[in-house]
């Protein structure tokens, strides 16, 4: 298994790499978000340990870009322990959150837990470029969607929103996070832009849009595929 460790503190990266190597993992090292994304684009990575506070491209922005195309597990590292910071990281798409200073044994345990989960889920419902969730099938190669075997015609933006949520099944994305990921822009928007697209997607993939089977609203937080 390959693990990417990203932190602008080289001593922290080296120490984590030593612990991971001792457990038999192969380790890639990066010292900012841009370098991390470059490594991810060129190598198979099974898990990423990502620091939040970094120069150039911070951990949250790196995570948002990653989630546009990859579902690799991410454990965030941060010196901030407040609940608001943890919630921000988790809603951005992180799988776990560890505060500094951390116990190396605990970090290794969390790594093993995430890899077990990723391996188990990755072998189910994601085959041959397809993401299958009950009767919903998103084909990431042909950019097409079927519900209970019937073709569903989505606009390009609708498809990208649905694919983002399907790739991260169970994760809640705020309207702003969806906008940043799908439009690849950091502009602050009103929730109504995403609400309209979500309503159109529901009308196309749900038997009863008022009682959705797949695309759920988490009130006051955002949207997810369940």
Task: Explain what you see.
It is a single chain. The protein is α/β, with parallel strands linked by helices. It has 2 domains: 121 residues, Response regulator (Rossmann fold, 3-Layer(aba) Sandwich); 100 residues, Winged helix-like DNA-binding domain superfamily/Winged helix DNA-binding domain (Arc Repressor Mutant, subunit A, Orthogonal Bundle). 42% of the residues lie in helices and 22% in strands. It has 8 helices and 12 strands. The strands form 3 sheets. It has a 5-stranded parallel beta sheet with strand order 2-1-3-4-5, sandwiched between helices. Helix 2 packs parallel to helix 3, helix 6 crosses helix 8 and helix 7 crosses helix 8. The longest helix is centred in the middle third of the chain and has 19 residues. It is elongated. The chain starts with a strand and ends with a strand. About 2% of the residues have low confidence.
Task: Give a nutshell description of this structure.
This protein has helices at residues 10-22, 33-42, 59-66, 83-91, 104-122, 156-167, 175-183, 191-205, and strands at 2-6, 26-30, 47-51, 74-78, 96-99, 126-127, 130-133, 136-139, 144-147, 150-152, 215-218, 222-225. It has 226 residues and is α/β, with parallel strands linked by helices.
Topology:
Layout: E1 2-6, H1 10-22, E2 26-30, H2 33-42, E3 47-51, H3 59-66, E4 74-78, H4 83-91, E5 96-99, H5 104-122, E6 126-127, E7 130-133, E8 136-139, E9 144-147, E10 150-152, H6 156-167, H7 175-183, H8 191-205, E11 215-218, E12 222-225
Parallel strand pairs: 1-2, 1-3, 3-4, 4-5
Antiparallel strand pairs: 6-7, 7-8, 8-9, 9-10, 11-12
Helix pairs in contact: 2-3, 6-7, 6-8, 7-8
């Amino acid at each position: 298994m390959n693990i990417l460790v990203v932190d602008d503190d080289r001593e922290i990266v080296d120490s984590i790499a030593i612990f991971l190597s001792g457990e038999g993992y192969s380790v890639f090292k990066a010292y900012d978000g841009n370098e991390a994304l470059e490594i991810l684009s060129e190598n198979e990575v099974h898990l990423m340990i990502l620091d939040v506070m970094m120069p150039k491209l911070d951990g949250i922005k790196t995570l948002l870009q990653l989630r546009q195309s990859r579902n690799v597990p991410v454990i965030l590292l941060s010196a901030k322990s407040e609940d608001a910071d943890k919630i921000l990281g988790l809603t951005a798409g992180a799988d776990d959150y560890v505060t500094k200073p951390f116990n190396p044994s605990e970090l290794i345990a969390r790594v093993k837990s995430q890899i077990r989960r990723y391996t188990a889920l990755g072998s189910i419902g994601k085959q041959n470029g397809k993401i299958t969730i009950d009767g919903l099938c998103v084909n990431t190669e042909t950019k097409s969607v079927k519900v209970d075997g019937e073709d569903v015609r989505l606009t390009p933006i609708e498809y990208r929103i649905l694919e983002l949520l399907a790739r991260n099944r169970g994760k809640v994305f705020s309207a702003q996070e969806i906008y940043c990921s799908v439009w690849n822009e950091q502009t602050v928007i009103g929730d109504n832009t995403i609400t309209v697209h979500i309503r159109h997607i529901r009308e196309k993939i749900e038997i009863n849009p008022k009682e959705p089977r797949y695309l759920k609203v988490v009130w006051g937080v955002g949207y997810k595929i369940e």
